[in-house]
Amino acid sequence: MLTKNVTAILTLWSACHFACGGPLPDTQAAGLTRQLQTIVDDPAIPLPGLSVVAIRAGEVVYSRQFGHKRLATAGAPARPMDANTMFRVASVSKLVTALGAMKLVEQGRLALDADVSDYLGYRLRNPHFPDRAISLRMLLSHTSSLRDEGGFKFEPGIDLKEVLLPGGRLHGKGAMWSKNHAPGSWFEYVNFNSGIVATIMERAGGERFDRLMRRLVFDPMGLKAGFYLADFAPAHIDDAATLYRRREKDGDERWDPQGPWIAQSDDFGVAPPVAPAGLERYVVGSNGTLFGPQGSLRISANELAQIMLMLMNQGQHQGRQILRPETIGAMLSRQWTLREAAGGIDNGNADSDNFRGLYHAWGLGNQHFVDASFVKNGRAGGDRLVEGGGFSGVGHLGWSWGLNALFVFDPATNDGMVYVASGVGDDPDRHPGRFSSEARFQERITDALYRGAIAAPRE
Fold this sequence. Notes:
Helix 2 runs antiparallel to helix 13 (440-454). The chain has helices at 2-19, 26-40, 92-106, 117-120, 136-140, 161-164, 192-205, 209-221, 234-238, 301-312, 325-332, 354-357, 440-454, and strands at residues 49-56, 59-70, 79-80, 86-88, 243-245, 262-265, 298-300, 316-317, 320-321, 336-337, 340-341, 344-345, 361-362, 367-369, 374-376, 379-381, 393-400, 403-410, 415-421, 423-424. It is of the alpha+beta class. The strands form 7 sheets. A 7-stranded antiparallel beta sheet has the order 3-2-1-19-18-17-14, sandwiched between helices. It has 13 helices and 20 strands. A hairpin with a 4-residue loop joins strand 18 (403-410) and strand 19 (415-421).
């Protein structure tokens, strides 16, 4: 009985320590909370909900939630956000997908530099560069020469070889392949890369991608996160936040900052998630895009912080070795760096847009934030995270369906930040940042977390 009581007390302390703000002094935590609440309530670009975590020197020092995971409707009251609220975290999903891929590399089932044709069972080549093999390393670092113009998510009955191979019934004009840049020579941020990675993982692991990720990553870490909500328990589905924008979901996509919040994704207060038609006939290893490896992970900010701590701790989580230190090192190692010309940014080895200079370096499934900031044509650009600079790290951004998210940490100091906003009340492009490619409200969140929880001296 004593052992059970001690275990219960430790479990309760751990949960409160994580969710209640850790060692950040109360007055500082209160000040940061007020600052973040002001950002959430900003009438120029309000947020329906926000969840944040700050980590300092490998320890969670602040965790808070603001607003609602589900807004009021005619038939139901608003539901406040809490520490268990999960979000469809958009492209932050790619970083987590890479964890599963690297676990299979660690197990010897995949190799970073092997021709992925060996796993897919057919010869995968950019038809414009037929002699250049494509590797898992290229897919994870966005240097594969694939593009999103041909689509990046396909129905259960489609085999990706029908899309990728010339002559396939869905290949069309081959818009999914770069005509100008060979595999391994050029960076272009592409969602489709993750779909190919998931398909390769299925071929190597022998399971559906969503279930493979559960076995390789989520269950060993004790996380409720997952890529396929229709398999979740009802209580977990209830934890999923609805994503909102003040703009039309379909039609002319018109923003209306004074209009109502319009659900964009995961509106499970209206209807539960359902399986896509034909899933029962799905052939494992044919089309991993189905499960959204590029953007459909549902996970809480606190569970993202657990993943961050695991990476900081060289793959260890609560006494278990999830990934080996050398696997973490390989994943976070620099794979691509943007060239910079004397007169400013040179996109000579990146796609011509590059999100206004947002991408400067990349690892395996993770962006490297190098603290770059510049002004071009009167608008700020770069990957800087805090005003004035001083914080660099590795991680990933996510934005889609109104959601905005950031997962970033510095492996040298083990300082890190997670934030997930469940919607946005106006077009972010109307509110540009002062020192980066991000919108101003995104800059304000990261700057507040950094100054209020990471860089601030302790009282």
